[in-house]
Design goal:
The chain has 176 residues and is mainly beta. It has one helix at residues 2-19; strands spanning 28-32, 35-38, 42-43, 45-49, 52-54, 57-59, 62-68, 75-76, 82-84, 94-98, 100-101, 105-107, 118-120, 126-131, 135-140, 147-153, 166-172. The strands form four sheets. Strands 3, 8, 10, 13, 16 and 17 form a six-stranded mixed β-sheet that branches.
């Protein structure tokens, strides 16, 4: 009985210590009414379609990388302004990718970032301004189409063996 009580106390202590861990400072904000709102990271999920094997040759195998949920909770204008505070990465490591809408999820155009059609944060595609504390305000030069998007750090390392990554999702909606 004593061992059970000690185990419960140890688990409770570990939970309390884990809850008091310092939170990582946000790196990406979106401007809402000229006020920065921190964007939350979302981790992609990967579905592996195995395909079939014909005489030792695999046919139809592909990965689908997606974010669960029909819509992003973060709404944006057609020309959203992001505040990005890069630490170890460069500003031009970030890019905007348009997602494909599905009934219950939003899929990336391709499972590999290098195969997706993206707009990198560069002077050719974005208006870039300096912010205090080594940050940058970036606004697309051309309006984005209505739909689901992600802002992604292209230089990040995958978080698991399937190649899932952390992204910032947002939705561009029609203004009434």
């Amino acid at each position: 009985m004593k061992k059970l009580h000690l185990l419960i106390i140890a688990l409770f202590t570990v939970c309390l210590l884990h809850a008091q861990r310092p939170e990582e400072k946000p790196k990406v904000f979106i401007m809402v009414n000229n006020t920065p709102a921190a964007m939350t990271k979302v981790t992609t999920q990967t579905e592996v379609k195995r395909g079939w094997e014909i005489q030792g040759i695999t046919v139809g195998k592909k990965n689908i990388r997606y974010i669960w949920g029909q819509h992003s909770k973060q709404l944006a204008e057609v020309k959203p302004t992001f505040a990005i505070y890069p630490t170890t990465e460069n500003l031009n490591d970030y890019a905007v990718i348009r997602m494909k809408n599905r009934p219950d999820h939003r899929a990336m155009p391709s499972a590999e970032l290098k195969d997706c059609n993206y707009k990198r944060v560069e002077l050719a595609h974005f208006k870039i301004e300096n912010l205090p504390d080594m940050g940058f305000a970036v606004t697309p030069l051309e309006p984005l189409f209505y739909g689901e998007y992600i802002l992604v750090n292209l230089a990040q390392k995958p978080i698991n063996e399937q190649g899932d990554i952390e992204v910032y999702d947002f939705r561009v909606v029609k203004q009434l």
